[in-house]
């Protein structure tokens, strides 16, 4: 069922908030950083926002919070222009958003993250905040680019399992989310040869001469539609299950 009212907090009056019944919120967390010559700087914000809006329209009582457009992008900052917070600042921002919601009785939060550099801050904020405030329930879609590839049949992607910053998967989903902002004629990338089981902590310029990893030339809107839909369906199903259980952490079988 689709919500009849606009459930985005930035567009809502106090009256509409009071009239609606909102028992949970979704927070898209993005970034503003270079995504190659073919994708916009707001890619990570636009994708997480699009997923959050779609999910919150399909479940009951979910408020869509404003997208956080700044993330931790220091490792991407050799390419202009990255507007970056430190992990410490981002952790504080997220904890204070959780505290604000909790104060207003909104104790169920889904975070949809759009950017790899935000993962440590989201993890720290959720762990630390919940230790002191266990009544606040926090769920996170940490890396949609990995989840999408897990949800779709093997062989959906042509290169590097669709991964990469500005790569096949991200470019495809942008062709679903905001095709007018994608310039495929400028798409080019590089697939770095990275160790399989141990992470090397790269600076982005060390693995991406053009500021893009993966192969965006393999991106299509068909793949993007599949990714976007699989993620939205999975999140809707997740929220509905959580609602049924009262957001218990250990879901009944
Ligand atoms: Zn990105």
Description:
By secondary structure, this protein is of the alpha/beta class. It has one domain (9-244): Creatininase (Rossmann fold, 3-Layer(aba) Sandwich), CATH 3.40.50.10310. Helix content is 39%, strand content 8%. The chain has eight helices and four strands, in the order H-E-H-E-H-E-H-E-H-H-H-H. The protein is globular. The structure holds zinc ion. Zinc ion (ZN) binds next to helix 2.
In short:
With 253 residues, the protein is of the alpha/beta class.
Rg over alpha carbons: 18 Å
Q: What summary fits the major beta sheet?
A: 4 strands, parallel
- DSSP strand tally: 4
Question: What small-molecule ligands were found?
Answer: zinc ion
Layout of secondary structure:
Elements: H1 14-19, E1 24-29, H2 43-58, E2 62-64, H3 87-103, E3 108-113, H4 119-132, E4 137-141, H5 144-151, H6 168-177, H7 204-207, H8 221-244
Parallel strand pairs: 1-2, 1-3, 3-4
This protein binds zinc ion (ZN).
Keywords summarizing the entry:
253 residues; alpha/beta; Rossmann fold; 4-stranded parallel sheet; binds zinc ion
């Amino acid at each position: 069922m689709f919500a009849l009212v606009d459930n985005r907090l930035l567009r809502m009056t106090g009256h509409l908030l009071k009239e609606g019944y909102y028992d949970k919120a979704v927070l898209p967390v993005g970034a503003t950083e270079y995504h190659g010559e073919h994708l916009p700087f707001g890619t990570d914000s636009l994708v997480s926002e699009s997923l959050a809006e779609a999910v919150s329209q399909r479940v009951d009582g979910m408020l869509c919070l404003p997208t956080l457009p700044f993330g931790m992008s220091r490792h991407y900052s050799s390419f202009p222009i990255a507007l970056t917070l430190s992990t410490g600042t981002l952790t504080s921002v997220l904890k204070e958003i959780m505290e604000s919601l909790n104060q207003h009785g909104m104790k169920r939060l889904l975070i949809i993250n759009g950017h790899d550099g935000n993962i440590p801050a989201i993890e720290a904020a959720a762990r630390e905040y919940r230790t002191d405030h266990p009544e606040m329930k926090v769920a996170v879609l940490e890396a949609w680019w990995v989840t999408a590839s897990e949800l779709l049949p093997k062989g959906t992607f042509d290169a590097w399992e669709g991964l990469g910053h500005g790569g096949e998967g991200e470019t495809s989903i942008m062709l679903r989310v905001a095709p007018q902002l994608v310039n495929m004629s400028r798409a080019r990338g590089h697939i770095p040869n990275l160790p399989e089981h141990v992470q090397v902590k790269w600076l982005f310029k060390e693995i991406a001469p053009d500021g893009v990893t993966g192969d965006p030339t393999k991106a299509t809107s068909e793949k993007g539609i599949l990714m976007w839909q699989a993620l939205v369906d999975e999140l809707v199903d997740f929220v509905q299950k959580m609602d049924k259980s009262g957001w218990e952490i250990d879901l009944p079988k």
